[in-house]
Amino acid sequence: MFTTYSAMHPKTEAFEPGLQELSLFAKSLAHPARMAIIELLARRKSCYSGDIAQELPLQRSTVAQHLQELKKLGLIKGSIEGQYVNYCLNPDVLRHYTQSLEQWLTQIKLEQSENRIDHNNCWT
Questions:
Q1: Domain assignment of residue 122, yes or no
Q2: pLDDT tens for the 124 residues of the chain, in order
Q3: Domain ranges, residue 11
Q4: Cα–Cα 20 to 30 A to 124, which of 35, 45, 88, 105?
């Protein structure tokens, strides 16, 4: 159901599939334009690509590239309506990635508290 990072980058095969998947999610959010697109779609429920481009300080072709990156991971869906594409969030995929990220961050916090890390000295 979800894209694996190792298919594109063989060196990542040494890492757990969950980490590969989260890194791909993080990469998809690594540009403020993509985050703005997600926020816009969350507010409007759906939006045509041309309308999205009008909301952002970017060229239409650049917005199209960002939409493709989000669509490739499945965070958004696009349906063709005549000669336009209407985009919306994919709530199931978004929920999956946010839950995975929350679980990973919780795990990090637990490990950190169990190991009683001295934040002033990483070598203890």
A1: no
A2: 555 444 555 687 889 999 999 999 999 999 999 999 999 999 998 999 999 999 999 999 999 999 999 999 999 999 999 999 999 999 999 999 999 999 999 998 888 777 765 666 655 5
A3: 5-115
A4: 105
β-strand partners of 47: 87
Residues 91 and 59: their CA atoms lie apart, in Å, by 27
Could you tell me if residue 120 is inside a domain? Answer: no
Q: How many CB atoms lie within 10 A of CB 66?
A: 22
Q: Which residue has the tokens 């481009």?
A: 53
Cβ atoms of 78 and 41 closer than 8 Å: no
Count of the separate structural domains present in the chain = 1
Which residue in the block uniquely carries the two structure tokens 């970017």? 58
Q: Which residues share a beta bridge with 84?
A: 81
In a domain, 14, yes or no: yes
Query: Is the Cβ–Cβ distance between 22 and 100 less than 8 Å?
Result: yes
- Length in residues, the chain: 124
